[in-house]
Design a protein that fits this description.
The protein is an alpha/beta fold and about 140 residues long. It has four helices and six strands, in the order βαβαβαβαββ. It has a six-stranded parallel β-sheet with strand order 3-2-1-4-5-6, sandwiched between helices.
């Protein structure tokens, strides 16, 4: 069974968050894939999303109270290494930077993917979002 880890800042009231919820609810019906979601922090704004995902059998892990805590790096590394994930898929800034730093600093072998939800920023093509760091990205 393939194991995929999704990393997102939080489940606030945004389009990326809703897209991820809808995607995961649909794809949990596939028997050959197991999903886990890490939210970097809990904003307590849309706990209904978390409840929906848990009702679908998806594990949600919350790392802390701030998306900028340096502890995130070590916590994410531990989750990825111990979970045996084949793919880590990051959504939004700064989630994609934490995942990129993880690969650059700790030489994580897991395939990394990110989805950029805006083409109007300057992140595409920098060292944190380049093909040297991520295996695939989507707009």
């Amino acid at each position: 069974m393939m194991r995929i880890l999704y990393v997102i800042n939080s489940f606030g009231p945004g389009g990326a968050e809703k897209l991820l919820v809808n995607f995961l609810k649909e794809f949990t019906k596939k028997q050959h894939v197991a999903f886990t979601v890490v939210q970097l922090c809990n904003t307590n704004t849309v706990d209904a999303y978390v409840d929906e995902l848990r009702a679908s059998g998806i594990e949600i892990i919350t790392l802390g109270k701030s998306v900028y805590s340096p502890n995130i790096l070590l916590k994410l590394r531990k989750i990825i290494v111990s979970g045996g994930y084949e793919v880590v898929h990051a959504h939004l800034f700064p989630s994609l930077y934490w995942v990129a730093l993880l690969k650059l600093l700790f030489k994580v072998k897991t395939k990394l993917v990110f989805t950029e939800h805006s083409t109007a920023n300057g992140r595409l093509g920098n060292v944190f979002s380049s093909r040297r760091t991520f295996d695939l990205f989507a707009l």
